[in-house]
Amino acid sequence: MLQTNLKQRTHYLNQLLAFQDTELVKVITGIRRCGKSSLMQLMIKHLKEHGIDDQQFVMMNFESMEYQDLDAKALYHYVKNVRKNLSPDKKLYLFFDEIQRIPKWQDAVNSFRVDFLCDIYITGSNASLLSSELSTYLSGRYVEIKMLPLSFREFIEFHGYRLETYTSLTGDVRKRVKNAENESIDLMEIFEAYMRFGGMPGITEIGLQQDKVFTLLDGIYSTVVVRDILERERRRGQRQITDADLLRKIIMFLADNIGSNISLNSISNTLVSEKLLEDRSRKGKPAVQTIQAYVCALLESFVFYEIKRFDIKGKDYLRTLGKYYIVDIGLRNYLLGYREMDTGHAIENIVYFELLRRGYDVAIGKIDNKEVDFIATKTGEKRYIQVTEDMRSETVRERELSPLRQIRDNYEKDVIALNCNIPMDHEGIKMMRLMDFLLES
Predict the structure, then answer these.
(1) Are 350 and 415 contained in the same domain?
(2) Would 411 disulfide with which of 37, 382, 401, 405, CB 3.0-4.6 Å?
């Protein structure tokens, strides 16, 4: 049944529309509850508004008990029966939610693509959806839509506020927020709520009360850990990930160290020194291998994202000391408790995911013994970006500007700061207020 209170996710809907009615299978991926099902509903709504009849749709959510015993062959015959009731010139629109729960689902999807006049959309909450096996079946015939929780701009809109652009008395172009009664709302107050509660779409339905939000986030966390990691490993017959307590300890460690240089060895050493993990190196199974399996499972479930280091002078990726960022800052606050003194790492986390939303490939930059927070690249564009809480201190200014000064190419160099009181162009380096960056069109 189509929801009636759908909120727009225009950025992602436009990506689906770009590939509508092509033979490419549209694969929507992302952490649970980030809005994948609603995006499919938005696509169905769009199609119906543009003349597609109800009988042309097959919408199946495989989380439902109704499809618990379905396998790939039964799924194929179900769709085949629907196809038989349509005239040959009518296209069938297939929407499959959490399809990874169907064993050998890729066999059915590939057969639909070959046998029927259809347009296919699928979602999954695990990166293994796009494993080498799927790539073999659908090589060059699928497009991935990578979905994330709400951006700050979406957060404003989802809570019923309106973003306006205006010209200040000094001639600067600025942004402000108004509520439904046309009253101005403090933009920083809304950002502080975003920093505290994060961008999971579900929180807009329950209000910004910490106990309610953390209850919702607890449900998301539990579902991801129990269903998407522990149960999935059991279904695959693997025994590497069996300890729920250890998994939580690794999650807590990574959440506590977002934006810090981390190796698998450093995770292992910390947990072993705190007697949270047995050192099995003498038994031929080093602790680091255990850690690697657990971390990979967290990456596959889109809880954390890994970012590699790039040697700017050597023009090559480095194998050591990458960083991890958590998909939603509210999820981190649920795990660790909200920390007002940890703003720097939190805004760095937010900027990283905003860059991903905008289609950038992101790496950490290394130049000599200094580091650039992000190198953001996409076709024909490169940006070197430093992120900091405050540029008002001379010591901080020197720390943030020094690595950028050492880079000799002519690509854009930016510093994004929550608080900034120096000229917007400083020694050829562009200064950006965090609010301006997040609210760019």
Answers:
(1) yes
(2) 382
